[in-house]
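A.,

Following up on our hallway conversation. Structure tokens first:
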């Protein structure tokens, strides 16, 4: 009986060892999956971006080479705040892909950022909008809880790398729709300041906004 019990214990222990070995091997293989990069830099045809102006509330500025956030009013008596919207399509990335990281790159536009206290915010957009039609009066609804704040530029031509990892993952698993982001100054009441970037209409291809997504396959 002791010999039989020893044999059974040995077999059970051997199976446990095999199971642990296979589990460890699976984990190592999963961790060693190659990280791939998907990159998209739209042009004047494929780009979906525009700035909107309080001073020109019915005008669409989707054809501009600029994406900026401005406060140009004089003592806030003549409102001329400006914001911008941007959306990148990434349907070619398989649904339910787990993204390691994703970033929007925004490149400073001449004559550069100006003014003081020009930190800014981004919001996830919560409804469909069309570049050629969007304006101040019909700007789309936002997900208020999605607000992120960015430090004011420390340099006149400072570029920005915006982390959108959570957003891209939520879109890929079907939690939200991809309607892009709206960017605006954190304080639009204090006048004469702004942050300026190239749009997808920029003549300088290397300075157009770009989305990069890093994922494992």
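Then the amino acids I'd put at each of the 217 positions:
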């Amino acid at each position: 009986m002791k010999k039989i019990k020893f044999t059974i214990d040995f077999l059970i222990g051997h199976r446990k060892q095999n199971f642990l070995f296979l589990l460890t091997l699976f984990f190592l293989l999963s961790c060693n999956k190659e990280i791939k990069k998907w990159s998209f830099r739209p042009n004047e045809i494929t780009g979906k971006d525009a700035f909107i102006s309080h001073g020109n509330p019915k005008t669409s500025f989707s054809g501009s080479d600029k994406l900026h956030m401005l406060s140009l009013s004089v003592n806030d008596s003549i409102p001329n705040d400006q914001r911008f919207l941007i959306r990148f399509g990434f349907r070619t990335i398989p649904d339910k892909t787990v993204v390691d990281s994703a970033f929007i790159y925004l490149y400073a536009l001449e004559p550069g950022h100006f003014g003081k206290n020009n930190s800014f915010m981004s919001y996830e957009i919560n409804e469909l909008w069309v570049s050629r039609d969007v304006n101040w009066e019909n700007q789309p609804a936002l997900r208020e809880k999605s607000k992120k704040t960015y430090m004011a530029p420390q340099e006149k031509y400072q570029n920005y790398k915006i982390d959108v990892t959570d957003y891209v993952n939520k879109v890929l698993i079907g939690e939200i729709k991809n309607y892009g982001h709206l960017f605006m100054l954190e304080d639009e009441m204090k006048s004469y300041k702004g942050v300026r970037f190239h749009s997808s209409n920029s003549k300088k291809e290397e300075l157009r906004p770009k989305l990069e997504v890093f994922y494992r396959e």
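Helices lie at 2-31, 165-172. Curious whether your intuition agrees with the design.

B.
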